[in-house]
Amino acid sequence: MPRAHEDHTSLLFDGEREQLLPPVVPISQTEAAVRSAQEVVNALRSSGDGLDKREVLARLIQFGPNTPPKAAQRSLVVQFLINLLTGFAPLLWAASILCFIAWRPLGGDNPDPSNLSLAILLVVVIIFQAIFGLIQEYSARKFDPGTLQTGEVQVRRNQAIVAVSPRDLVIGDILVLNAGASVQADVRIIEAIELRVNKSSLTGEALPVPLTSARMEDASCAARDAANLALFGCEIVEGHGLGVVVATGADTELGRTADLAKHAPTRSSPVQREINRFVLIITLLAFCTGLLTFLTWYFDLRVHHPDYMNVPGMVINMISLIVAYVPEGMPISITLTLRNVAKRMGRLHLKVKQLSSVETLGCASVILSDKTGTLTSNLMTVVQYAVPAGEPILVPSMYTKKLTSASSSSSSS
């Protein structure tokens, strides 16, 4: 159990005679939707007066804080090792090893110190690039999903309404829902007065959805479509009401969706694929140039001009040609460019978890979507339509004018 929760255990005892409160058995969102409001409250061992302090602390220990799940990430040590072995690093490693070989044993009794210096310099360049990439990766990783939970929420506890951090919400809390607030957990509505919420973050529906405290008759109804559930991430558009928290953190509908995205297979971004292609081309050119240099020396210079260049000199000459192909500053330039764009997006309150996603945004040429609530101004307009001859089409009156003009333009064209 996380240490951050263990600190609460001492508060659950009144002297040495009190026992730790028994754990509460949670219920699913679908089960909460088909039960009556009072049945849900009773099942979660709550009441209209809210939970007391001991019960809240016990549930914090049992379920943990109400924070979104974090995506699994490589450790910084593994990421550093990957940086040492990707991109142009293998080519530079090969050049450095050849320089060490040219220094010893090919250098004989009088090895050339410049060969050793070049080998060390190439290693320093590789390590510098790896460290720089690691710093930028660490900077991007500082994004915490929990930072999306801002402000405080109002809950009813011990017969009083108090303001608490969203992270301190627990299952069974009685949450006060007011217009303009954001729902910070999955909530079963127990009281609703003209209550409407925007579920576009989950369903894509542009129009606010009215909520009710009545039970759902259809047991097969999905949680996000239930009219008596306010889910984590929804915005309260109007009205007010009360709800009992039925799920927090990773157990919410939004948390489960994030968990599915976390386990989705990752693919290289367009810029990563282009970089890999560029690295392959440069590596092949460098290898062919180095091989051509070696063959020229071996079959021509070594035979006709044996004193012109010895073996260590040939190796260093070949390495110089190979290294000349490598744009050592390119990875740093690309990373800095993406980082600057990420900073500009950050000033617009857009969170960037991976630098590669910055470049991917600029590669979208076509967006296909059946919902526009999270993409545009919550309005989809038909610009062209086709129906069988003589068959009517039923549309709301607000779109009739637009459809008529679109039809006229299609006919004229």
Keywords, separated by commas or semicolons:
413 residues, alpha+beta, seven-stranded antiparallel sheet, 14 helices, 44% helix, elongated, disordered N terminus
Describe this structure in words.
- This protein is of the alpha+beta class and 413 residues long.
- It has 14 helices and seven strands.
- Strands 1, 2, 3, 4, 5, 6 and 7 form a seven-stranded antiparallel β-sheet that branches.
- The radius of gyration is 32 Å and the shape is elongated.
- The N terminus and C terminus are likely disordered.
Low-confidence stretches are 1-18, 398-413
Q: What would you call the quaternary organization?
A: single chain
The averaged pLDDT comes out at 78
Q: What Rg is obtained from the alpha carbons, in whole angstroms?
A: 32 Å
Order of helices and strands: HHHHHHHEEEEHEEEHHHHHH
Tally of DSSP helical segments: 14
**Spatial shape:** elongated
What's the story with the biggest beta sheet? 7 strands, antiparallel
Proportion of β residues? 5-15%
Judged by helices, strands and strand pairing, the structural class is alpha+beta
Helix content: 40-55%
- Terminus-to-terminus distance: 68 Å
Number of strands: 7
